[in-house]
């Protein structure tokens, strides 16, 4: 029995006692591992040759471009070394999330020292040649990024955009009771709005069924060019701030060695013991109703700890000057070169690496074994743990459609019923994340089977709110989006639903997650994870009451720019199409699925069988809506993508059928936006033959689109005579007005579409001028009517396909 195995116990207090009192031998191993990591970190930044200093350092050994960040790295590796010891003693499953993304070389070095890196990348073996490869690839052409990116084993958080480390950590441990997520928050990151909102995660974490997050606020005092706010605050103020968020704060400060090892070991032991005590009380039913006060460690160390203290007479260690490359002129400056060699040799590499270049036993004995290594944790490669959802048959939630355009329903309400039953059938594998809008977005059926999660005080007036709830509502798009990212990256499924305009609050997170998925597809060892599903409702076209601030379809444009390997955009026109699309998205892997549909009552067009066929094709001709029966090309194509503009398009086709029966009109509806692309531009792109079947090669197309018109022009670029596509969409015209007036202001109303159709028909049709005058008269009448009556004209307000135009 090894010393470590002897300490393993389910009693937190006994394990904590062993953890808090490391032997000198243990501290020696931790320190050796830490020195090895620091050596590898510096080597990655500086060296292109002579990786073990077998000869005196010379300019030719130095990279021509010095990139990367030293300042936060020694603190990150210090914490990592101690968490590894915790794992050795307790068998705790843990993942490590580095909020300071610029500490990437330290996380790469950790994976290398644990052996995981060489297992996944055999071309970087545990040898002198492997060290050379490790150093040369860092932040170099054809190599790896400087952040803890998707290429870094054990990472689910790149940290390239600051602010999200805690939300990713909280999402990772939801419904994951045995997992500990150690989340290092940099003091620069702590200044971001997203991170400031993230501390509230403990208000939603249930110790009985969820894992734990241990935040480590690493205060090294400086950003890239100046001090940090929390680094300069009085420590008592920082402590009060964090205690106000509900944490019990454990503080460690200093730079003295080996004293810091002993102090941090004791702090980590105290934090872990408290976590286990909270969990055991909750899981045994002995806990009280109050929210636990989870531990949080504040670690204060110098920025650039163990690096050059002064350079050219200027203090570097402990200042912002240590943030990136403390010695920048190494190739040209002999003094700097000598300082670099002294710095590297201060870690005593001869003790850390053997004659072959492999880490010595002194170093490797500090590593946990197998999947307990944080760089090898399956929780950080969540596709390995993913279980398919148990999905009900979505057809059972269908709206009955006897005739197109004659029935109204709230489409998202049917999705809510589907989500309710997904919750019931997947009690620990699915969650809905929504910023206080679940009921508003007509998804409230989920509350029939689950409350909202809440660990704070509950009062009798609250509805569907309890500590046992699993519906996640917090008024922060950043938190909801980030929680879902952490949840899916560790192998579970979910959906983020929000108002369309406010999806732009978290749009950069959507972009970053898309980039992660794209890069993950290039790595055979990264297993596919559940897709990130985003539902946008309360859309621009029906936010007439809220006004211009709530009117913006920008996330469509954002997702459209992502690489085709991961981006998917769906615009279901009715409830049955929404159900079919949602089922597909919940079954998919490693995609960024964006679904856009409004929550208000809307006309229903397709039976469930028709919807399934339509969604499978992605786009199709609605023969019943047009007048181009009998073969041959139509005079004009009216195309649409989006629920409101679909109604306007069908209404426009009806007007043309009644008032200009000699015009042959084809109606095309697009539900999968990416089908408009060429196959070489997107996997869903339709073939030239399919495109021709819908749009012909020569006929003008009047396209009514939910989003910004430029998106359609971007998608049909390269198609035959792409200039024949005339797009109407949201053109940033909005205010507090009526629903139909929103389409009028954006020149996408049925009357505008009719006039466009006439203007873009290549043959003369008798009576066309009269119809155009009638349309303009209708628009004039509308403008006066809404001001006088405060609602839309009856023929618009009550329109259906059976009604009068």
TrEMBL record:
Residues 24-384 form the Xylulose 5-phosphate/Fructose 6-phosphate phosphoketolase N-terminal domain. The keyword Cytoplasm does not apply. Keywords: Lyase, Thiamine pyrophosphate. NCBIfam families: PRK05261.1-4. The lineage of its organism: Bacteria, Bacillati, Actinomycetota, Actinomycetes, Micromonosporales. It comes from the Bacteria. InterPro entries: THDP-binding (IPR029061), Transketo_C/PFOR_II (IPR009014), Xul5P/Fru6P_PKetolase (IPR005593), Xul5P/Fru6P_PKetolase_C (IPR018969), Xul5P/Fru6P_PKetolase_CS (IPR019790), Xul5P/Fru6P_PKetolase_N (IPR018970), Xul5P/Fru6P_PKetolase_ThDP_BS (IPR019789). Belongs to the XFP family. One of its GO terms (molecular function) is magnesium ion binding. The keyword Lyase applies. Its cofactor is thiamine diphosphate. Residues 599-800 form the Xylulose 5-phosphate/Fructose 6-phosphate phosphoketolase C-terminal domain. One of its GO terms (biological process) is carbohydrate metabolic process. It comes from Rhizocola hellebori. This is Putative phosphoketolase.
